[in-house]
TrEMBL record:
<dbReference type="Pfam" id="PF02782">
    <property type="entry name" value="FGGY_C"/>
</dbReference>
<keyword id="KW-0067">ATP-binding</keyword>
<dbReference type="Pfam" id="PF00370">
    <property type="entry name" value="FGGY_N"/>
</dbReference>
<comment type="similarity">
    <text>Belongs to the FGGY kinase family.</text>
</comment>
<dbReference type="InterPro" id="IPR018484">
    <property type="entry name" value="FGGY_N"/>
</dbReference>
<keyword id="KW-0418">Kinase</keyword>
<dbReference type="InterPro" id="IPR013449">
    <property type="entry name" value="Rhamnulokinase"/>
</dbReference>
<keyword id="KW-1015">Disulfide bond</keyword>
<keyword id="KW-0547">Nucleotide-binding</keyword>
<feature type="domain" description="Carbohydrate kinase FGGY C-terminal">
    <location>
        <begin position="258"/>
        <end position="448"/>
    </location>
</feature>
<dbReference type="GO" id="GO:0019301">
    <property type="term" value="P:rhamnose catabolic process"/>
</dbReference>
<dbReference type="InterPro" id="IPR000577">
    <property type="entry name" value="Carb_kinase_FGGY"/>
</dbReference>
<feature type="domain" description="Carbohydrate kinase FGGY N-terminal">
    <location>
        <begin position="6"/>
        <end position="248"/>
    </location>
</feature>
<dbReference type="GO" id="GO:0005524">
    <property type="term" value="F:ATP binding"/>
</dbReference>
<dbReference type="GO" id="GO:0008993">
    <property type="term" value="F:rhamnulokinase activity"/>
</dbReference>
<dbReference type="GO" id="GO:0005829">
    <property type="term" value="C:cytosol"/>
</dbReference>
<dbReference type="GO" id="GO:0006071">
    <property type="term" value="P:glycerol metabolic process"/>
</dbReference>
Length: 474
């Protein structure tokens, strides 16, 4: 390849976002961060919202920076978190503001839905882990709590679909992100219209369902004028960030598990067909859509969100600390046996995470963690114990022995977390690359524009381009 191919990958996480420029020279990929910004949800009254228009502003700021480089950019794509959405009226305007999945308006809705359609029946179709913030429960809550917005809506767009609509004027629903919400038939890989009707919800809001690797269109004139970026194709990749993270994972061995480690921990396996068995239902595993026809059989585990909030609270009330400071304090902690359940509802969106961790340990007869290190160890132990259980149950559900865990995402920069994961699970841990979501985003763009032929080829390129570190259990 004589001329490099340049692509832009927007990766919106639940706590931060960034725009990455990718350069592919025919054998390796190089990444350059162009723009980074925080993703700060806003609490207004009792509700918790995404600052959607500010995020779109940051997106355009990134495009301006990319345009200033004066290089031929072929395409761009966006991946975000799952389940959340915006509603568009008949004039094409966003109605209200997308609600953050950590908002508590859906507490108790699972039980209400169960009375209408038994949860076992819901799972038999959708194959999705029951979590109170799933789109199905948010949609049900909107009908009750935001009826004006619900009734005036004309189109339903998941978050990456919404941002791409702002850029291109095109409305669609991308499969991998849509699959996170518990509204799709897992086998048919399309909206479960019968389920939606049984719940008394609208079926007329959904758009065309498109698959990862589809070219959506080009930037509208207003965006071109504002940013100076021209001739760029907008592509729908695996627009759920975990779908892109798994696509960007160069699996070490057959039947290896993946662990996408960031604000959330997503631990699972890439398989060909959904698993809708009694065991997967009882263990509450999820079957989300992947790229190239794959299914991501996984467990959603509350992740480094807990540690991020511990750091924030410690900085507010004690002293300024960095994540390396937390790791050092954890290694030096006198007691290392404190442990929390990271999936306890109290850790979803508390006002003070530090106090909640301490209270949990005391209420569960462990005593009081003293100092930063002991509090942090309670979080580390909670996360890695959940990883251990999740891996064991995956082996039961699939009937396969998992030889190793491929960890990707920002969490792998925490060497202690990698070590503790290997020790807790008893599995070899292969950490890297850090930018799993970005790389999965990029390789699907490269496939869409014809630069590579398959995801398998893309993963080989990723492995040749980025370092991986092995952690063995001790």
């Amino acid at each position: 390849m004589n001329t490099p191919i340049y692509n832009l990958a927007f990766d919106f996480g639940a706590s931060s976002g960034r725009l990455i420029l990718s350069k592919y020279d025919g054998s390796k990929i190089e990444l350059e961060e162009i723009h980074r910004f925080t993703n700060d949800p806003v609490r207004i009254g009792k509700n918790f919202y995404w600052d959607t228009f500010r995020l779109y502003h940051e997106l355009k700021t990134g495009l301006k920076k990319a345009a200033s480089k004066k290089i031929p950019i072929t395409s761009l794509a966006i991946d975000t978190w799952g389940v959340d959405y915006g509603l568009i009226d008949k004039d094409g305007n966003l109605i209200g503001n997308p609600v953050n999945y950590r908002d508590d308006r859906t507490i108790g809705v699972i039980e209400e839905v169960d009375k209408i359609v038994p949860l076992k029946e819901v799972y038999a179709s959708t194959g999705i882990q029951f979590m109170n913030f799933n789109t199905i429960f948010q949609f049900y809550a909107d009908k009750k709590m935001r009826p004006d917005i619900y009734e005036k809506a004309d189109k339903f767009l998941m978050m990456p679909d919404l941002f791409n609509y702002f850029l291109t004027g095109k409305m669609y629903n991308e499969y991998t992100n849509a699959s996170t919400g518990q509204l799709l038939d897992a086998k048919e890989r399309f909206w479960d219209l019968d389920l939606i009707k049984k719940l008394g919800l609208r079926t007329d809001l959904f758009c065309e369902m498109i698959k990862p690797g589809s070219i959506v269109g080009e930037l509208i004139d207003e965006v071109v004028k504002e940013t100076g970026l021209t001739g760029v194709k907008v592509i729908a990749v695996g627009s759920h960030d975990t779908a892109s993270a798994v696509a960007g994972t160069p699996f070490e061995e057959e039947n290896a598990a993946f662990l996408s480690c960031g604000t959330w921990s997503l631990l699972g396996m890439e398989i060909d067909e959904p698993v809708l068995t009694e065991e997967s239902y009882q263990y509450n595993y999820t079957n989300e859509g992947g790229v190239e026809g794959k299914i991501r059989l996984l467990k959603n585990i509350n992740g480094l969100w807990i540690m991020q909030n511990l750091r924030r609270n410690w900085c507010e009330f004690e002293a300024e600390v960095s994540f390396p400071d937390i790791i050092k304090a954890s290694r030096e902690a006198k007691r290392k046996d404190f442990i929390i359940d990271p999936n306890d509802q109290r850790f979803t969106a508390p006002y003070n995470m530090m106090n909640e961790v301490i209270a949990y340990c005391e209420e569960n007869g462990q005593g009081k963690p003293e100092g930063l290190g002991e509090i942090a160890m309670a979080i580390y132990n909670g996360l890695t114990n959940e990883y251990k259980t999740t891996v064991k149950n995956l082996e039961v559900i699939t009937g396969k022995s998992i030889p190793c865990i491929n960890m990707v995402g920002g969490g792998i920069q925490d060497q202690l977390l990698c070590e503790l994961t290997a020790n807790a699970t008893g599995k070899k841990v292969v950490a890297g690359p850090i930018e799993g979501s970005v790389l999965g985003n990029v390789v699907m763009q490269l496939k869409a524009v014809g630069a590579i032929s398959s995801l398998e080829e893309g993963r080989k390129i990723i492995k040749a381009s980025f370092e991986q570190k092995v952690h063995m259990p001790s």
